[in-house]
Amino acid sequence: MSRAVVLLSGGLDSATTLAIAKADGYDCHALSFRYGQRHAIELDAAGRVASAARVDLRVVDIDLRAFGGSALTDSRIAVPEAPTSGIPITYVPARNTVFLALALAYAETLDARDIFIGVNAVDYSGYPDCRPEFIAAFEKTANLATKIGVEGGERIRVHTPLIAMTKAEIVRRGVALGIDYALTVSCYQPDDNACACGKCDSCRIRREGFAAAGIVDPTNYA
Question: Quick one: pLDDT at residue 85?
């Protein structure tokens, strides 16, 4: 069985990506990050999802608050509660580049050739590091910059099974795979009881996805 590193945030998309990787027969090793995010409650969700999927979860500490520039890492910046034009302030500078680089390092230690990430370029907030062009460029870099990429014989692959799916399609796929979405958290500003705000971009996209899929949204909204 081939090993794979799966980036797991605890949200809907990453939980679905993990389920897809498992269904495809990979020996999955989940990886999450405590990066100074204001919604760090998502790490509890990642733990629940990993436990339900019976996979190991490694949580790595990095501190992207050192650079700021995002409403997700700087409490002085308000999380938008209405759609905005352009790249939103919830974009965390270079986050997926950093996450994939660390996933690549983990993959090398596992002698794994496969990395899964739940980016989506259809129903998403417009982040530049969720686009197919970025993933293709990172995969090329991964094969140029690593020992396993140069000497391993088999190419490193970055899998993005959700990238061309609508949120409704993602929800339907996850339900078909048996995911309990009540375990997940997508909100950028949940309260102390882990209730979603229902107003941020992530909540809006999630709620609309369940509605379009014709499936009851199990999220607890404040």
Answer: 81
